[in-house]
Amino acid sequence: MLTFNKLVRDKIPSIIEASGEKSQFTILDEKTFIRELKKKLLEEVNEYLASSTKEAATEELADILEVIHSLAKTHQVTIDQVEQVRQKKYEERGGFEGRCFLVSKE
Out of the domains of life, which is the source (predicted)? Predict the structure, then answer.
């Protein structure tokens, strides 16, 4: 038996069962869920960093976005609220389209 000990998407238990394999799952309490979401975010970011094609990068960005949606819910904010904060910061400080790299400051 393989041991994973990681957060998985909601339909994974059904997918595993439908394949005829056996597995063991548990439902996490809120504190543990948030901790595991943070670990999942790091996992997905690392997979994005390792991606080498547009398709793979797109898949990993979608996974990152899914985790962000779940994290927002745990903080009882909507993605629209997160987007409003992002937009405000964009208006005040800009984005990253200019590729500006700060070398030093005195």
Answer: Bacteria
For 2-16, b/e burial (b = at least 16 CB within 10 A) is eeeeebeeeeeeeee
Q: Which helix (H) or strand (E) holds 16?
A: helix 12-18
What are the pLDDT digits (tens) for 72-105?
999 999 999 999 999 999 999 999 999 999 999 9
Phi-psi region of 52 (alpha: psi -120 to 50; beta: other; left: phi over 0): alpha
Distance CA(89)–CA(95), nearest Å, equals 8
Q: What is the pLDDT of residues 42-54, one digit of tens each?
A: 999 999 999 999 9
Give me the helix-helix angle, 79-93 and 54-74, nearest 10°.
110
Q: Are 48 and 60 in contact (CB under 8 A)?
A: yes
Residue 44 near residue 60 (C-beta atoms within 8 A): yes
DSSP E strand stretches across the chain: none
